[in-house]
Amino acid sequence: MLRLLSLSVLLSAGAFEYSVTSVQAFPLSIQKDTKNPTAEQIAESAIFIYGSRPVLEQIRRNGVERGRITRISADGKTEESSYERRFVRGENFEKDKIRLDQKLPTVEYSLIYGAGKLWGLINGATFTPRQDAVTNFLSQHQHSVESLLRYKENGSTLTLVGRDKQKGLDLYVVDLEDKEKRKTRYYISSKSLHVLWLEYEQTPSPGATPVKYIRKYSDYRYAQQTLVPYRSLLFEDGRQTQETRILTVTFGVKVDESLFKNPDA
Questions:
Q1: Strands 117-122 and 211-223
Q2: Residue partners of 111: CB distance under 8 A and separation at least 6
Q3: Is 84 among the domain residues?
Q4: pLDDT single digits (tens) 157-166
Q5: Does 50 fall in a domain?
Q6: Per-residue pLDDT for 14 more than 80?
Q7: For the chain, how are helix, strand and coil distributed in percent, rounded to 5?
């Protein structure tokens, strides 16, 4: 039987104190007797590394993220835009509230998710986003590092595919399936427990051919005692189509609820 470990940590910022009483929440690198970890142990250990479940729930309850997105078209042309993402975390993904404001060279608009619905806002007027825009927005939410960190809250199930080694990296490979049967495969470093990349398949629009997406994460930094990848690359069927760089991220700030309300509702 695995020995239960106890850890008490006092965080100077906010003086938030918590204790970890389950071996599943302790880093696998410290669990010398864990030779054959389960998918849940790997996920719980990753959650600990990203900040621990109590700290993530306390600090990342809401926040503001700003950055830049570079999109790459099929002919190699690039388009840069700036974005601001504001969110309020619900008890699960369906109850989250997200607002993504984007500024492109020729237009500014917002995509807003709340009460399980997504709509757009431009020049103060609402609009219905194109299906591909809806798919892309939701996929960043449904197939993400956060999906793994919040697998319990979302009622998702985990399966350990096994171990792999690619380009000298020792990896845990874990599949996640949410309540809607959407699947995401995570490649997690067995050394750092960082999610290095994830894979999923999705149909961009009705009747289209399914596309295999890969999202790679790098430039991990700590933001208010929680781990954040500041750079991500998106590949569609092997071709890079997007790069996202976070410039600043602040958690725990007050976010006005009116930002998520549909004026036409």
A1: unpaired
A2: 99, 100, 102, 118, 119, 120, 121, 129, 133, 137
A3: yes
A4: 999 999 999 9
A5: no
A6: no
A7: 20, 45, 35
Residue 224 domain flag: yes
Rounded to the nearest integer, the mean pLDDT of the chain is 87
pLDDT in tens, 237-259: 999 999 999 999 999 999 998 89
Helix (H, G, I), strand (E, B) or coil at 125: strand
Residue positions counted in the chain: 265
Give buried/exposed letters for 66-76 (b at 16+ CB in 10 A, else e).
ebebeebeeee
Residue 190 CA neighbour count, 13 Å, CB half: 19
Q: Give CA–CA dist 47/231, Å, rounded.
A: 19
Instruction: In whole angstroms, give the CA distance from residue 158 to residue 41.
Output: 10
Encoding tokens for residue 53? 């479940």
**Distance, CA of 136 to CA of 200 (rounded, Å):** 13
Nearest residue to 220 via CA among 27, 51, 2, 86? 51
> What is the CATH number for 210?
2.50.20.10
Average pLDDT over residues 180-193: 96
Strands 117-122 and 157-166: unpaired
Number of domains in the chain: 1
Tokens 């990296």 belong to which residue? 169
Tokens of 108: 């500014």
Range of the domain at 114: 59-260
CA–CA distance, 44 with 203 (Å, rounded to integer): 31
- 153 within domain boundaries: yes
Q: Using CA atoms, how far apart are residues 115 and 91, in angstroms rounded to an integer?
A: 12
- Which residue blocks in 97-225 are alpha helix, DSSP H? 131-142, 145-149
**Per-residue pLDDT tens digits for 43-90:** 999 999 999 999 999 999 999 999 999 999 999 999 999 999 999 999
